[in-house]
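Incident review: delayed structure delivery

Summary: a single-chain prediction request sat in the queue longer than the usual turnaround. Root cause was a stuck worker, restarted by the on-call engineer. No data loss occurred. The affected request and its eventual output are reproduced below so the record is complete for anyone auditing the incident later.

Affected input:
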Amino acid sequence: MVIDQVITPVALEQPQMIHKGDQVVIIARSGSLAVRMPGEAMSDGGFNEQIRVKNLNSQRVIKANVTGPGQVEVAM
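Output delivered after worker restart:
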């Protein structure tokens, strides 16, 4: 950035950590119990954003929060 440069909303957006079609790990948590399962991202998302993910075991589409590259989490 340069002094006196206008900051646009695009410059403030979080980078996408997950892209549509990426293979992800879905982590379902309940207290100290965590279950991991394979999934496929149905939309793009950055850190802590909610995206749609297909559970590859059940074929169900769920909403989950992006917690890292290739990783999403849902609360049980």
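Verification: The chain has a mean pLDDT of 92.
Action items: add queue-age alerting; document worker restart procedure.
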